[in-house]
User: Fold these one by one.
Assistant:
Number 1:
Amino acid sequence: MKKYLLLPVLLAFSLLASAEDAEPDLRIDTPAAKEIRASLKARFAQIKPLLENGTLGLTAEGKLAVRDPASTPLAERQNISKLIAGDANDKAALFREIARANNHPEWEQRIADIVHERMSKRIPAGWWVRDAAGKWQQKQESAKP
Amino acid sequence: MRSLGLLTLMGAGLLSACVTINIYFPAAAAEKMADKLIDDIWQIDAPAEPPEKESEVTP
């Protein structure tokens, strides 16, 4: 009786073991992806000071948003709108390209979700984040154990 | 003989579960990729909270 149990168990274990390290890296280095990343990076040079001074914040979904539209100088509003739209478009294009480059176009949303999830754990202290209820909170220094 | 059939069925069920999870979406690789992107584009330093610990098996 016991010897009939051994084979399925061994088979299951060998599969579990191989499943753990069987995930190849996801490619983000296609020419198109590199181009979009460069565009995001270049635009971020303008966005960063706005995140640091609280003009812009991140929504619960990880998108850029103006924290207090009333207090944004009129002269800057158009530029800021452009930055927000450009950032959103580039990100969408990047996640689409990464999904395509890895032969799974249907992964686009999951990739977007996971990038947002990782980002939300790494948001620098001082940036503003809007919670699900719509309230803006400033990210505090995380207490190091 | 009946129990052998049941065992095979259980084994096959476990097998397909592993394969399904693996093909469906490579969560660990995606997290690694996400961190790479975040480092590159947002140039944030060391993550405040590390991703979930995964035992790395180097072949």
Number 2:
Amino acid sequence: MVNLQNQSRNGQDVIEDKILLEVNGLKKYFHVEKNQILKAVDGIDFTVLQGETLGIVGESGCGKSTTGNLLIHLLDKTEGTIIFNGLDMDKMTKEEMRKSRADIQMIFQDPYSSLNPRMRVKDIIAEPIKTHTKLSKKEINDEVNRLLDAVGLDRSYGNRYPHEFSGGQRQRIGIARAIALRPKLVICDEPVSALDVSIQAQILNLLMRLQKEFKLTFIFIAHGLPAVKYISNRIAVMYLGRIVEITTKNELFEKPMHPYTESLVSAVPLPDPTIRDKRERIVLQDDIPSNLNIPTGCRFHSRCPYVQDICKMKEPSLSELEKGHQVACFFPRNLN
Amino acid sequence: MVVEHKNSDQHLIDSKTNGSSWKIWLKRLWKSKTGTVGLLVIFIVILTAILAPVLAPFNPNEIDPEKMLVPPFWSEGGSIEHLLGTDNLGRDILSRILYGSRVSLLVGISSVVLAGILGVFIGLISGYYGGFLDTILMRIVDAFLAIPNILFALVFLAVFGPSVVTLIFVLGITNWVSYARIVRGETLSVKEREFVKAARAIGVKNMMIIMRHILPNVISSFIVISTLSVATTIIMEASLSFLGLGIQPPTVSWGGILSDGRDYLATSWWLATFPGLAITITVLAIIFLGDWLRDILDPRTKG
């Protein structure tokens, strides 16, 4: 496990300098009853480089899953631009749109409800191929077998139904479906949070192996830092529909600048008791405010331990304070 | 992991024993005793309907004034000649039941199929697309529910004239609303499941999603309801016959024989009892068959 991590994460040989996805000012508002507006995603900007894994973390309701759904067009955005592979998604022709659908795929959170119980595994995996290509039956069958091999499932499993598999195996089927079209970008929407801890590591390792093999780019959405820490190159922290901090994994864990990130990092369990005891645990007060009633000024000020007057009046913008380290805070921590 | 492998070995053995798909179906049918009985009874009923001219001892409309209201053969005064007795005009009841099965099965099953196709289609469309279309379709359903079935059927048959075709049509039209309601409800819940979201993310077209992902997951509740309603349809045909707007004589139907026998219920019980029994047995067999069909369509109950 450690070995794998060193090879693919620290080597960074697979990451190219090319921007695959660029998101600018992305917003998604939902109209709920009594003319209230739920601001699920409230203006986020980020870029994803070809071959990297961008982790997105945040509490439930922070907009991370909505962001994923916007990227694969399961939801229509309210505002903002998404530029994928150099093309603005709003200006795409129908054919380009179809192609881009094949290029962005998703791995879902719940391995139980994400597979149709009435379809055989081979048909589930073949569905994206049938939808986007005109291969013959035999070619599709060969491709399905290759995909089963790639995700570590026996070829004979293709004739079975999803209920015959365990959670981890089902997630492998879901992964095979997601990579069937050799997409450029795979959005992993909490793919391991429904699995046993022992299976989680297997799935994460599988994802990292496939990333190398198929030259994939991942956006990895999770609600906790540990899973994201293992797989990501860079991590974006979201809070109430906004990105509050985005930087490389090591930087984020060593020098978290936003007070929210700082408290998240301090909450990650550590195996070494001597380090653990020395660490200062920052426990946030109160619950996360409602998306229907976002605080004025900095949206984190109501829970921030370092809050000042300005924080209640003005909203800080996400700005690059150090190279490759963007933070939205007036009083960032750990600044050189 | 160890446990997983054990399981998978078990599955391997299972899949090796699978022969041709016909054999598997027969095997699974045999495992369900009620399903076997249901299928067998339906088979016999259909066979007798087809072979009625061969099997029936008499012409079903042959009147014999000398042998009116003869009881079944085991009762006092009964004869082997008329196994189930005769009616008030001296017609052989057994022959009438055999011939009656033709119309009753045809009307019962065809109208349920018609109602099913219409109801399932509208339910799927309404539930899947939602919004304005859903509102419109469901108001139409409400309107249909507000009209008493029998009244609608009477008006319809009075206007278009009673015949087998109009009867199938009118019974189909009055029944589709309940299917539409049920299928819509099921569709609403199934379309929120993640595999539908996954299909949309892949870029599968809406019609394909409905046919491939939603329909197979809503069909089981439809099958249960539709087998039950074959029964009510046969009864409904009987009530329409009783009101004089069902199948017209000389064509025989179970419902018709049943309503003919009503006047003699107190004195000659066999007139209404035997067609009633025929309906009960057929309906029961259809329900058994429906239960079995629902089970085998669900891969989770396989084996």
